[in-house]
Amino acid sequence: MLIRWLSGVQENNYVPAIAAMNVLLAMYPQDRRTAFLAGRWLVHQRRYAQGIFVLEHAVALFPDYPAALNELAYAYAFSGNIDRAYGLMERYVELQPNEPNPYDSYGEILRAAGQYDAHAELHVDFELVSALNR
Known about the structure:
Blueprint: H1 2-10, H2 14-27, H3 32-44, H4 48-61, H5 66-78, H6 82-95, H7 100-112, H8 116-132
Helix pairs in contact: 1-2, 3-4, 3-5, 4-5, 5-6, 6-7, 7-8
């Protein structure tokens, strides 16, 4: 099913690709990675509501899943729910405080929402963390 889904997408055969994705999700309902991949793909197709639904499932399966939290935050931001996106990004930063991507992603969402002061403050926070880890 995974090959049918991915090859269908690559060949622009979206109906059979989505059908294969749905079968795959039904076959492995407890697989957080499958849910993450499907949710991420849906978000990148600008199917935010569907992507949020699937990514919420991935996070429910594994609440400390950094990649899923990151993608879910973007999905909420893209769909206009900035407050939910902020909360998810804060959790992502808590999980990986010494990594650059949580700060970068959070900063992108803050900047896109017009929160320039918060964006600058977050940048300073990351610079401090980076300096301490050298």
